[in-house]
Amino acid sequence: MGYTSFFKYMANRHLDGHDALVSRNFVFPLPIFVKDRVSVIKTEESFLVLLAEYRSTLELAGVVRTDIREISAHCHQADGISISLEKQFYNINDTACASCEMTYYATLADDRLKLHMVEYTDIKAPMPLDQMSIFRTG
Fold first, then answer.
1. Do the Cβ atoms of 51 and 22 come closer than 8 Å?
2. Please, which pLDDT band fits residue 128 given cuts at 50, 70 and 90?
3. How far apart are CA 29 and CA 49, in angstroms?
4. CA 122 to CA 86: how far, in whole Å?
5. How far apart, in Å, are the Cα atoms of 59 and each of 52, 76, 89, 129?
6. What pLDDT shows up at residue 32?
């Protein structure tokens, strides 16, 4: 079973500003790893703020759309799954301007993915994730 359409749907809803549709698929507290940094988002309210900040950061970077490709999906235990994806970010000229790979760690309950952790890896600049407030050092 492929998960690409689910994650494309979520990415499109996020870029369109429908963050509540995105956040309902996550379980809190939610650890998010970016490179060697981790931040734990404790509540859905905090996650909604983060999604809005992320969208603004993408807009400032000139991102107008994304595309997602599933790399792999592995089952763990009875209901656990890890899903690795590659995400491309495109500017107004429809040119790829950034990319990253990410892995979502999830469970499947009532025919719905519930996302428990996100890990961003292989980030290719200019990737604005590490410019977000939860990952800035200082």
1. yes
2. low
3. 14
4. 9
5. 11, 36, 11, 12
6. 93
- Residue 25 DSSP label: T
Place of tokens 């790893």: 33
| Cα(76)–Cα(113) distance, integer angstroms | 14
Distances (CA, A) of 2 to 59, 85, 115, 121: 29, 11, 16, 21
For residue 110 the two structure tokens come to 């009532």
Q: What is the dihedral of CA 80, 101, 131, 16, to 10 degrees?
A: -80
DSSP-derived 3-state class of residue 14: helix
CA 60 to chain centre: 18
Which tokens belong to 137?
Answer: 């050092």
